[in-house]
Amino acid sequence: MSKQTLQVLPHNFTIHSLDSDQAVPAAVMSAEIFFIAKTSEELSIVCPSDLKFDSFATEPHWRALEVIGPLGFSLTGIMANISGVLAAANVSIFSISTYDTDYILVKEAQLPDAIKALKKDGYLFV
């Protein structure tokens, strides 16, 4: 499989955990970029760190690598390959997929190591 092209998004992200019955804060809905997941047990929101609101728990200082898409649903192994490269470099990830593409969040302090490992494995960055 050929390597995908990635780009580093300019935002610093925070991952929030809220109670499953809590409403999504209005400020989130007006953000340029955000991700929301809800289960019967929790509501998770990933958004730019400059948005401040009460949440059960927060995990700040994440940066996002976007796989330049759109990616077809018939493509396989994209996240497995990228996460494997990063795991071998001891870089922890938080992954998000949308209809068109994938995002790999890494801790800001590990971003240089992530980029170095991915470039060494043949991934391109724009």
TrEMBL record:
Residues 13-50 form the A9CJY8-like N-terminal domain. Transmembrane segments: none annotated. Pfam families: A9CJY8-like_N, ACT_7. Residues 58-119 form the CASTOR ACT domain. It comes from the Bacteria. SUPFAM superfamilies: ACT-like. This is ACT domain-containing protein. It comes from Pseudoalteromonas rubra. The lineage of its organism: Bacteria, Pseudomonadati, Pseudomonadota, Gammaproteobacteria, Alteromonadales.
